[in-house]
Write a structure and sequence with these properties.
Blueprint: E1 3-16, E2 20-27, E3 31-37, E4 56-62, E5 68-77, H1 80-83, H2 86-102, H3 110-123, H4 130-144, E6 170-174, E7 179-181, H5 183-187, H6 191-194, E8 202-206, H7 207-216, H8 224-231, H9 236-251, H10 256-269
Parallel strand pairs: 3-5
Antiparallel strand pairs: 1-2, 1-4, 2-3, 4-5, 6-7, 6-8
Helix pairs in contact: 2-4, 2-10, 3-4, 4-9, 7-9
Length: 274
């Protein structure tokens, strides 16, 4: 039985039988993959907490017929203390969900692995806004997968934005078109295109938010000060609202993690009875 070592993130785990789990991993060398952690659900498992959700771990594995088997695990960096916070847990769950959904099995995406490492670093920085982290991560993930939204020219006709001011002080964006729409192309949209569901339809952002999105592409994901500087006073929620349609267009659905996190935050903010 062939053995090998691998550094990877734990994206998710699901039960297998009474004592085991199937672990979804994301590594630099192999991309997304799955492996079995035998006995991990037992009270005195040899793995202990080393296979925690969204931890970066150094693994030893044996090659199996259908699934490889994890034989040893050591923590490289852990997100445990960070994901106790509901907002940060929601952000980590979102990244795990999106990487799992959009990455093909056994296809290495080295830039994306580096991005996930930087995201974890930012997640552990209490100064970093989780929603701003997500917005920046969205842009980096799309770039790593060759799906970068066009923010420098019209995604339809190719007309460059240059230094011209945006019409009406707003930028028109379309997830379906792949980014910015110039005034001419936005006016030529059909009714079905203009009023499609929000994942593929047309939306607009303020000029300041559009400028911040462009700056966010170059910000250092693991540096709270760099992200804050790129946001330039725009709210994290407004920037995330601008990146989310591009992700959900690729997913073909709403993010389950963000839906759950939103419901939890609503419950926490709701006034208590009595």
């Amino acid at each position: 039985m062939k053995s090998y070592n691998l550094e990877a993130f734990v994206l998710r785990m699901r039960p297998l039988g009474e004592a085991d789990r199937i672990v979804t991993l994301f590594s630099r060398e192999r991309g997304k993959g799955h492996a079995v952690a035998k006995g991990v659900r037992k009270p005195h498992s040899k793995f202990g907490a080393r296979l925690d959700f969204f931890s970066r771990v150094q693994l030893s594995l044996h090659t199996g017929r259908s699934l490889d088997v994890i034989t040893a695990a050591q923590t490289v960096t852990s997100s445990w203390e960070s994901v106790i916070d509901p907002e940060r847990f929601g952000a980590a769950s979102y990244v795990g969900e999106i990487v799992d959904a959009l990455c093909e099995p056994d296809l290495a995406v080295e830039d994306l692995y580096d991005t996930v490492c930087q995201f974890q670093q930012g997640l552990c920085d209490k100064q970093a806004d989780p929603e701003l982290l997500i917005a920046a991560f969205d842009l980096r993930l799309l770039q790593a997968l060759g799906l970068t939204p066009e923010l420098d020219a019209c995604a339809r006709c190719g007309t460059g934005l240059g230094n011209r001011p945006l019409a009406g002080g707003r930028a028109v964006l379309s997830a379906h078109a792949g980014g910015l729409l110039c005034r001419t192309c936005s006016l030529q949209l059909t009714e079905s295109e203009r009023y499609a569901d929000e994942r593929s339809g047309v939306f607009s952002v303020k000029a300041a938010e559009f400028k911040a999105l462009r700056a966010l592409r170059e910000a250092i994901l693991g540096d709270a000060a760099s992200l804050t500087s790129a946001a330039a006073g725009c709210s994290a929620s407004s920037l995330h609202r601008a990146t989310r349609p591009f992700i959900e267009y690729q997913l073909g659905r709403r993010s389950k993690s963000l839906t759950v996190a939103g419901n939890q935050q609503h419950a926490l903010r709701a006034p208590k009875a009595g």
